[in-house]
Design a protein that fits this description.
This protein is an all-alpha fold. It has six helices and no strands.
Length: 158
């Protein structure tokens, strides 16, 4: 009986918390052509809050605002390029989900490769240093005899 009461209280709490986080749905445009064009543009722009999602995929408040701004600019008669140029002017090249390859975005494009090369170089340097340390280490006669006894397959181990 106590368990049933506890479960029902937990369910009520989850329901209450879930509805408090809910937001009102953004109404879709009355014009399906406008909505399709806005969706195509939203896929081209990065959410500046999430950074790994397009504004089409993000539910962040900024992404919602940017999608609304796209709709307003489409209604104002702007072309796709004009809208993208406006967003880049306002937020920089980083707002583009696929930023152009140019001097200001060089680090965005080459950064992962530079990081990978630096990591590989550091790892190779570590291996070389470790190999030198092992080559320079000298074993005492007792340690050498124990090592040979452990490595010998047919000999009895002490």
């Amino acid at each position: 009986m106590k368990r049933a009461i506890l479960v029902s209280c937990a369910a009520a709490l989850v329901a209450a918390v879930g509805t408090s986080w809910a937001k009102e749905a953004v109404p879709a445009a009355a014009d399906p052509v406008l909505e399709k064009r806005a969706a195509q543009l939203a896929v081209e722009l990065r959410c500046l809050v999430c950074q790994n999602q397009t504004i089409a995929d993000s539910n962040a408040d900024l992404a919602v605002d940017l999608r609304q701004q796209i709709r307003e600019q489409i209604k104002a008669g702007k072309t796709n390029n004009e809208i993208l140029d406006f967003m880049v002017e306002r937020y920089g090249d980083f707002v583009l989900y696929r930023p152009p390859f140019k001097a200001t975005t060089l680090l965005l494009w080459l950064g992962p490769f530079i990081l990978l090369a630096a990591t590989a170089a550091a790892f190779l340097r570590y291996l070389a240093r470790r190999r030198r340390q092992l080559e320079q280490a000298e074993l005492s006669e007792g340690d050498r005899a124990r090592a040979e006894a452990l490595l010998a397959p047919d000999k009895e181990r002490p």
